[in-house]
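Q: Hi! First time doing this. I have a protein sequence and I read that you can turn it into a structure. Is that right? Here it is:
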Amino acid sequence: KNITESLKWQDEIAAQTKQAIFYPAFVGLFVFGSIFFVMAYLVPRLATFITNMGQELPLHTKVLISVSDFLTSYWYLLFFAPVVIILLIKYMASRDARVRYKLDEFKIRAWVIGPVFKKIILARFANYFALLYSSGVTVLNSLRINEDITGNVVMSTALREMQKKIADGNSISDSIDSISLFPPLVRRMIKVGETTGELDTALDNVSYF
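A: Yes, that's right. Below is the predicted 3D structure, encoded as structure tokens:
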């Protein structure tokens, strides 16, 4: 029953995330297309008129015309360069653990999307942790399993640090307090759950919020 509810919850989260990202992505694409149209089509036609006036052009106008000339001549770079860069970064991440860590760190720190991505990771962690703990799996084993399925190296590293601290005799809440990845609300709710003996309920609440 719990696994079914968890899978349903994950599907809802995926659908909500797509809805949240669709609008800014659409607006960004529209703005980018509008700027490209102005720079590649309108500015070159205005540039001919401006230069024929025979007056000294201000610096920002020269820069605008230069950018327009570059886009007109090398427009294909705007479409192929990002694809090449993304594929190169993915290849490097698959080969080098440090690159993969930096990439995953960037994912949770990126402007606008980063905080959303981080909350999704934390929500999944809390959901899986609650599911395992309520089923009788020990705390250390629950963290170890989460480490493998979190899908983010930064989160996996944080969970590994938690395991070491708990194995050394620290409480769950004290172990989480020392890791900046977890926001204050998450740390407080887990501390309450640990104190009251209802850790799985507290984790469910973390996942909900």
